[in-house]
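Renewal narrative, Specific Aim 1. Our central claim is that a sequence can be written position by position from structural information alone. The example that follows is taken directly from our test logs and has not been curated for this report. It begins with the structure tokens describing the chain, in the order in which they were read.
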């Protein structure tokens, strides 16, 4: 505001005016906190130890920093932040607008819609088991060096949520419920962006999916009994996935998460360089059945289309990953029969974890 007197002299002062959207509510949280910490929600054996016959434990790829282990109060705060539309400039979208639990924390749209109706540059990523991505870099192109760095970016993104970190702090401190949640999580009522980043990261790392049909094939000793669990078709798919079709070479461990960025030959000439040379990471394939469309640009609508692509669609380009080339350097052709293709799809559907998709611990606290 600027005031001017009769002689023309002026005095100015700046105020931030926050008017919350009228339809926002306060979160409803359980009286005794949900459990998120490893101590209260132990990872199953096939996630923590390697045993014969499985795909290997993902725990070696755990990207949790020593300074930000999951606590019940930290992840509770993270859950509230994740679902709170106050994290966008016009209270229009929350993280969950583009990362929906029913779709394994991805979005059914090819490109997601931001707070002012703009579209994201790439397809939203599923967040299940993000904790087990080796190296801990985030986004399709790994541009964020850690999850703690990643989670602040959508908030500031001009298309996605459109807030400055200063505005974020101001808005959160004007609510009735955040100061107490910050105190429970971090010991004082102070709201800082570092604490926001840590809490959101704890919640995202708590999105572990470990109760699919695939997981239930493993005994308490971490050894799988695929024969006794899967249909003949799923079993054939499992054998192809970890054998002749070579999928496990990139989508590895019992969390089916990629080991790094790869150029998979989606196109002969690269339009999106990703992490350089057309390389991208793939999120864990857990719950892949429910989170179409697929790939960084959402180009495939079905898992059948994805397998057909690996079967005979891989394009030659200078960056094409050696794992998708013949020894002579040509793009690999798998020559799958229709029966084998469908078996691979059936096997990927054993990664669907209904418990995870409806777990109240991970759902919105806003009515
Ligand atoms: C408007 C839609 C939108 C909103 C809102 C949004 N995201 Fe995303 N998210 C995306 C898209 C699109 C990508 C992939 C972008 C890319 O890689 O270029 C992504 C990627 C991610 C990733 C990377 C996953 C990985 O494995 O690398 C994480 C983590 C994530 N988002 C968390 C969040 C959090 C936390 C919030 C809220 C603070 C949020 N997102 C808000 C659309 C959105
Ligand atoms: C060379 C490593 C590599 C191999 C081998 C490989 N993939 Fe992938 N896969 C990737 C990468 C990288 C992506 C992400 C590519 C992108 O979006 O540009 C991906 C994406 C996918 C997706 C979509 C994931 C999503 O979130 O949209 C599915 C499903 C998939 N792969 C299944 C398979 C199957 C089935 C096989 C075996 C027939 C296989 N992959 C072999 C690296 C690989």
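The sequence written for that structure reads:
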């Amino acid at each position: 505001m600027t005031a001017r007197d009769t002689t023309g002299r002026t005095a100015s002062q700046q105020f931030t005016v926050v008017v919350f959207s009228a339809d926002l509510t306060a979160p409803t949280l359980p009286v005794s906190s949900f459990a998120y910490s490893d101590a209260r929600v132990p990872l199953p054996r096939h996630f923590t130890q390697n045993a014969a016959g499985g795909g290997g434990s993902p725990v070696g790829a755990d990207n949790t920093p020593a300074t930000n282990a999951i606590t019940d109060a930290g992840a509770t705060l993270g859950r509230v932040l994740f679902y709170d539309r106050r994290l966008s400039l016009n209270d229009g979208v929350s993280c969950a607008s583009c990362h929906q639990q029913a779709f394994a924390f991805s979005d059914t749209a090819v490109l997601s819609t931001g707070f002012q109706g703009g579209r994201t540059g790439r397809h939203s990523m599923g967040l299940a088991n993000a904790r087990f991505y080796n190296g801990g870099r985030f986004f399709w192109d790994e541009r964020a060096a850690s999850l703690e760095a990643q989670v602040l970016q959508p908030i500031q993104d001009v298309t996605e949520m459109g807030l400055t970190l200063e505005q974020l702090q101001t808005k959160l401190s004007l609510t009735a419920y955040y100061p107490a949640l910050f105190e429970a999580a971090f010991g004082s009522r102070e709201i800082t962006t570092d604490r926001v980043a840590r809490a959101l990261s704890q919640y995202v790392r708590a999105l572990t999916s470990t109760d699919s049909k695939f997981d239930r094939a493993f005994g308490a000793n971490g050894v799988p009994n695929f024969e006794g669990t899967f249909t003949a078709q799923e079993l054939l798919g499992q054998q192809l996935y970890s054998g002749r079709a070579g999928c496990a070479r990139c989508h590895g461990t019992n969390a089916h998460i990629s080991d790094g960025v790869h150029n998979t030959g989606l196109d002969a000439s690269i339009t999106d360089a990703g992490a350089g040379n057309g390389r991208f990471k793939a999120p864990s394939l857990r719950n892949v059945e429910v989170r179409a469309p697929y790939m960084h640009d959402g180009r495939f609508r079905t898992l059948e289309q994805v397998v057909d692509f690996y079967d005979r669609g891989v394009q030659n380009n200078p960056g094409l990953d050696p794992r998708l080339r013949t020894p002579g350097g040509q793009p690999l052709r798998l020559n799958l029969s229709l029966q084998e293709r469908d078996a691979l799809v059936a096997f990927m559907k054993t990664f669907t974890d209904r418990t995870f998709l409806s777990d109240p611990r991970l759902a919105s606290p806003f009515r």
